[in-house]
Design a protein that fits this description.
The protein is built from 15 helices and two strands. By secondary structure, the chain is mainly α. Strands 1-2 form a two-stranded antiparallel sheet. 5% of the residues are buried.
C-alpha cells in the first residue's frame, strides 16, 4: 500500500509538475489582479456575445428559457475538458503503476514525517477526487434535468403546435361559417331592401289613393254642406226627434231590465224567507225535510240571482252614423224644385244685385273720367309750378344784378347775406327791393307801388305754399321725376361750367407757355445767390362755419341762375 501510495503520489506530483501550465488547481484562491482581469474578460465576452446576437437573424437567436434548458453549456463543457486526463497523462499513470509494481525495486526506509505527509497528500488527493466526482455527478444531474426539461419543453411545444393547428382549423371553420353567414345576411338584406322598395311603392300607391279619396271626401263634404244649407229645417227637426226617440227607447229598455233583475232578487229573498218560516213552523219530520230542501234551493237560486248584475247605463251621447243618416234629397227633381223656389224668393235680391252692378260700372266710368280730368289739372299745375320756378329764378337773378349794381354805385346801405364768408359782394337794399317787385309781378300779381317789400314777400310766400300744397297732392312719382330732371340739369350745368373753366385755364396755360417760349433766353452769370431758410410756419386751425357754407352755396346757385 505504501509503495502504491508512494508511486501514485509521485506520479501525481509528476503530473502536477508536467501539467502545471495546462490544468490549474481550481481550489486555489486567485490573486486580486486575476479577479479583475477575469471580470473584464467576462464583460468583454458579454459585449461580444450581445453584438453577435444583434447581427444574427431572428431564426438563429435563442431565448433565456432555451439557454437555461440546454443539456450542455459552455461551463459544463469546460469543466469536463478540465477534469478529463489527456492521453499523455494516462500513459504516465500507467508507467508509474508499472514501476511501483517491479519486484526488483529497492525499498527505501522512510520516516514518520514523510509517511504522514504522503498520507496527507493521498487524503487531500482523494478528497479532491471525491469533490470533483461529486461536482461531475452534479453536472450530470443538471444535464439530465436539462434534458428532461428540454423533453418536456419539446412535448409542450408539440402540444402547443397541435393546439395551434386545432385553433387554426377551428378559426378556418369559423371564417367559413362567418362567410356563409355574411352571404346569408347579405342575401337577407337584399331581400329586405327589395321588400322595402315594394312596400314603399305600395305605400306611395296607397297614399295616392288616399289623397284621391280625401279629395273625393272633401268634395262630398262640400256637397253635403250645400245640401244641408238648402234642406228645410223641418227635416233636421224630424231627424233630431227620431234620435231622441231612439235614446228614450234605449233608456226605457235599460230601466225595464234593471227593474226585472230587482224583482227577481226580491222574489228570491221572499222565497227564502217563506222556506225558513215553513221550516220553523214544521210539525213533522217530512215537513222539516221538505222545508230544508226548499231553503237550500232558495239559497242556491238567490246566489245565482245575486251573481247577476244590473246592466250598465246606455251611452246616450251619440249621433247618427253617416251610414244610417237619411237624406232629404232622394230625387234630382227635388233639388230643381228647391232651386226654383230659391230663385223666386230671391228674385228681388237678384234684380237689386244687377242694378247695383250697373251703378258700380257707372261709378267706375265716372271715376276714370274724373281721374283723367284731375291728371290734366295736375299737369297744368305742374306747368304753372315750372313757370313760377322760372320766374322765381329770373327774379333771383335780377335781385342779384340789382344787388351788384347797388354795391357798385351806391355803396351805402347793404344787406350782408354771408358776403364776407363766401367772398361775394354785398347786395344793396334798393336792388333787393326791385328784385322782389319783379318776382312779385312774375308770380302772377299786379304791380302796385303802394305795397311794401315785406307785403310782397308775404304774398309770394303764401302763393308758394299754395303751389307746394298742390304739389303734395300730385303723384309722388311725378314729383320725383321732375326733381330728378332738375337735379340732372343742375349737374349738367355745373359740369359744363367746370369744363369751360378747365378750358379757359388750359388756354391761359398754353398762352403763358407760348409767351415763355417766345421770350428771349436769359443766361445767368456768376455764382447764384443763396436764399435764406424760411422761418417755421405755425399751423392755424380754421373753424368751418356750416351756415356760411350753406349761404355761400345758395348765393352761388342764385348767381348761376342770374347768369343764365
Amino acid at each position: 500500500v505504501n509503495c502504491c501510495s508512494e508511486a501514485f503520489s509521485r506520479s501525481m506530483s509528476q503530473h502536477d509538475v508536467s501539467g502545471q501550465g495546462d490544468i490549474p488547481n481550481p481550489f486555489n484562491i486567485p490573486a486580486d489582479e486575476d479577479i479583475f482581469k477575469h471580470r473584464e474578460e467576462d464583460t468583454m465576452l458579454k459585449m461580444q456575445t450581445r453584438e453577435m446576437a444583434q447581427q444574427q437573424s431572428v431564426a438563429a437567436k435563442t431565448t433565456f428559457a432555451s439557454r437555461m434548458q440546454a443539456t450542455t453549456t459552455e461551463e459544463s463543457k469546460s469543466l469536463l475538458r478540465q477534469f478529463k486526463p489527456s492521453r499523455s497523462q494516462r500513459e504516465a499513470l500507467t508507467l508509474a503503476a508499472a514501476a511501483s509494481a517491479a519486484p526488483e525495486r529497492r525499498k527505501e526506509k522512510e520516516n514518520m514525517t514523510e509517511f504522514i505527509a504522503k498520507k496527507r497528500e493521498i487524503f487531500l488527493l482523494q478528497m479532491s477526487l471525491d469533490t470533483k466526482r461529486a461536482e461531475i455527478q452534479k453536472l450530470e444531474e443538471r444535464a439530465r434535468q436539462r434534458e428532461e426539461a428540454l423533453k418536456k419543453s419539446e412535448q409542450m411545444l408539440e402540444e402547443d403546435a397541435l393546439r395551434f393547428d386545432a385553433f387554426l382549423k377551428e378559426n378556418d371553420e369559423k371564417v367559413q361559417e362567418a362567410i356563409k353567414r355574411a352571404e346569408m345576411e347579405a342575401k337577407a338584406k337584399q331581400d329586405k331592401v327589395l321588400e322595402i322598395k315594394r312596400l314603399t311603392t305600395s305605400t306611395a300607391a296607397l297614399r295616392s289613393e288616399m289623397n284621391k279619396f280625401e279629395e273625393q271626401l272633401e268634395d262630398c263634404r262640400k256637397y253635403k254642406e250645400f245640401l244641408d244649407a238648402i234642406t228645410p229645417p223641418e227635416f233636421f227637426e224630424a231627424q233630431a226627434a227620431k234620435l231622441q226617440a231612439r235614446k228614450d227607447a234605449m233608456l226605457t229598455e235599460w230601466q225595464a231590465t234593471c227593474e226585472d233583475v230587482r224583482k227577481r232578487k226580491e222574489a228570491a229573498l221572499a222565497a227564502k224567507g217563506k222556506a225558513e218560516h215553513e221550516y220553523a213552523n214544521a210539525r213533522t219530520q217530512q215537513e222539516a225535510e221538505r222545508s230544508e230542501r226548499a231553503i237550500k234551493d232558495s239559497i242556491a237560486y238567490l246566489k245565482d240571482i245575486m251573481k247577476e248584475k244590473e246592466p250598465p247605463p246606455p251611452n246616450l251621447d251619440f249621433q247618427i252614423s253617416p251610414e244610417e243618416e237619411e237624406m232629404f234629397f232622394l230625387d234630382p227633381a227635388q233639388l230643381l224644385a228647391v232651386y226654383q223656389e230659391l230663385e223666386e224668393s230671391n228674385l228681388f235680391y237678384i234684380q237689386n244685385a244687377q242694378e247695383t252692378e250697373e251703378a258700380l260700372e257707372e261709378l267706375r266710368t265716372k271715376f276714370r273720367d274724373t281721374r283723367g280730368r284731375m291728371d290734366l289739372d295736375v299737369s297744368c299745375l305742374n306747368s304753372q309750378v315750372l313757370e313760377l320756378r322760372g320766374a322765381i329764378g329770373a327774379a333771383q337773378g335780377k335781385s342779384k344784378r340789382l344787388k351788384d349794381r347797388t354795391i357798385e354805385n351806391v355803396g351805402a346801405l347793404t344787406l350782408s347775406m354771408g358776403a364776407s364768408a363766401s367772398g361775394h359782394p354785398a347786395i344793396s337794399l334798393d336792388e333787393l327791393t326791385g328784385k322782389v317787385a319783379e318776382v312779385y309781378v312774375r308770380g302772377g300779381f299786379d304791380a302796385d307801388q303802394s305795397i311794401g317789400t315785406l307785403q310782397m314777400l308775404t304774398n309770394i310766400e303764401s302763393k308758394l305754399e299754395e303751389l307746394l300744397a298742390v304739389v303734395d297732392v300730385m303723384p309722388a312719382e311725378f314729383s320725383e321725376q321732375l326733381e330728378k330732371g332738375r337735379e340732372k340739369e343742375r349737374r349738367r350745368i355745373a359740369r359744363d361750367e367746370k369744363l369751360s373753366a378747365a378750358q379757359r385755364e388750359h388756354e391761359a396755360r398754353m398762352a403763358r407757355a407760348l409767351e415763355r417760349a417766345s421770350a428771349p433766353v436769359f443766361k445767368k452769370l456768376g455764382k447764384p445767390v443763396m436764399t435764406r431758410s424760411a422761418p417755421p410756419k405755425k399751423r392755424v386751425e380754421e373753424t368751418k362755419d356750416d351756415r356760411a357754407d350753406e349761404e355761400a352755396e345758395l348765393e352761388a346757385y342764385l348767381a348761376r341762375d342770374m347768369q343764365r
